Amino acid sequence: MEYRRLGKSGLQVSAFSFGSWVTFAKQVDVGPAKEIMAAAYDAGVNFFDNAEGYEQGGSELVMGQAIAELGWSRDSYIVSSKVFWGGAKPTQRGLSAKHVTEACHAALKRLRVDHLDLYFCHRPDVDTPIEETVRAMHNLIVQGKVLYWGTSEWSGQQITEAHLVARANGLTPPTMEQPQYNLFERHKVEADYLPVYDTFGLGTTIWSPLASGLLTGKYNDGVPQDSRMNLPGYEWLREMLESDAGRAKLAKIKALAALADAAGLSVTHMALLWCLANPRVSTVILGASRLSQLTDNLAALEQKAKLTPEVMAGIEAIMANKPAGPQRF
Prior knowledge:
The protein has 329 residues and is of the alpha/beta class. It has helices at 30-42, 58-70, 97-111, 130-142, 156-169, 187-192, 194-200, 235-241, 244-262, 267-276, 291-298, 309-319, and strands at 3-5, 12-14, 16-19, 47-49, 78-83, 116-121, 146-151, 176-177, 203-206, 283-286.
C-alpha cells in the first residue's frame, strides 16, 4: 500500500481507502462487512469513510459493530463521518452549530469510538453562516471529539471563505475536501480547487472514482440484475444511464476498455490508477459489496507501471474533457 499526506496535515492516509455508501446496511450486514473491512485493513487500507446520511445512520452502526468485533487498535485506523442529512426535522439537517454538534455525538455512538478522525460537512449550507459552522467544528476539535474537519462538494470559493473566517477568528480551518472525481467529473478537482491547494494545503478524499460503477464496464451490455441501479432509491442511476448523455458515456467507456486491454489493464484498474496519478488526490475511496470486488480494486496498485504517458494521452484523446487552462497533472 502507498500512503500520502492528507493535504498539509501530518496524517498519512492510504492511497486506497474504503467507503460504505450504498453498501453497508443496504446490501451488506455485519458479517460480510467484517470480511471486507478485514481484507482492506490487512492490505494496508487505514481510512474507512462513513456519514450520518448513509442509510439514516445504519451504515455507521454496521461499521461500528464490525470494527468493535475486529478488535483493531484505535491508533491503527482512520474513521470519518459527515454531517448534513440527519433527519426530516429542521434541527436534524444542515450545518447549524446544533446539528453539527449533535450529529457528531450520534456518530461517535454509532461508530463506537471516542473521537472522529475526519468529520466532513457533507454539502454547503446556504442557510447557515460559514462562521457558525467553522466555530462549531473548531469547538469539537478543542473538545477532542474531532481531529480534522473538512468539506464535501463545496466550491473553491466556499472553502476559501471558511479559511479566511478561521484565520480572522483564531479558529481551526478545514483540512480536506471530499469531491466526486473520475474520468467524467473533473472540474472541481482539476480547476475550481487550483487556488486552494497550495494556498491552504487542501487534501482530497475523492469519491466515485468508477462513476457509480460505469467505469468497470459492467453496464456496457445492459444492467446486471445485482447492480446498484436495481436498488430501491437508486432509480436515478438507471435513468442517467438510459439518457442520451448516458449512452454517450457508455460509448467512451467501450473505447477506454479497448485502450486498457491493449495496455494489459482492465478498464477498472485504468480508471482507478488515473485518479491516483493526480498528486492532488490524497486517497481514492473504494466501495464494494463483495470481497471479490475489493480485492480486484486493490490489485490496481500492482499495475501502476502500465499507466504510461502514452496510455494517459490515449485516455485524454478519448475523453476530450480536460478542463481548460494550465496543466493540472
